[in-house]
Amino acid sequence: MYESLTIFISGITGIVGLFGLFLFLRLLSFWKNTDPALIKTRACRADKFVMKNILVIFLVGLLIVYHNFMEFLGLAYSEFYYGYLAVRYPTRLIAVTELLLALLLIEWLMFKWINITKCDTQ
């Protein structure tokens, strides 16, 4: 059960990662055409936008640290990605899910930045 769920979540992470690449390229296209002073004004005027940025970056950092700590303890083996599926499925499931959560948080943040920067190009 854990094996197929872990593989499914790993696949979803790959798809979400490709979507994140698309969002990043879109953000870059808007960013180079936007006045920096206008970005600062919009970011500060948005409801708690700066605080949300800081919180999301902190949470993503904690998720990555937690994932690396699990790998350090040997709970999330990198051999999983090479086909050795015989040890500790629940911890691998947690390790893969936390990376998906970190990726989703970063993409949400990119989406917010796109909304702030794209208003200038219209």
Task: Output the keywords.
single chain; 122 residues; 78% helix; 0% strand
What is the topological layout?
Blueprint: H1 2-31, H2 36-45, H3 49-73, H4 89-118
Helix pairs in contact: 1-4, 3-4
Structure description:
The protein has 122 residues and is mainly alpha-helical. It has one domain (2-121). The chain is 78% helix and 0% strand. It is built from four helices and no strands. Helix 1 (2-31) runs parallel beside helix 4 (89-118). The longest helix is centred in the first third of the chain and has 30 residues, at 2-31. It is elongated and about 50 Å long. The relative contact order is 0.20. Residues 84-88 have low confidence and may be disordered.
Task: Give the number of helices.
Answer: 4
Q: How many distinct folded domains?
A: 1
Question: What is the straight-line distance between the termini?
Answer: 49 Å
Shape: elongated
Strand content: under 5%
Main β sheet profile:
none
Question: SSE order, as H and E?
Answer: HHHH
Helical residues, percent? over 70%
> Strand pairing plus helix content: what structural class?
mainly alpha
Contiguous uncertain segments of 5+ residues: 84-88
Number of strands: 0
Compact overview of the structure:
The protein has helices at residues 2-31, 36-45, 49-73, 89-118. The protein is mostly helical.
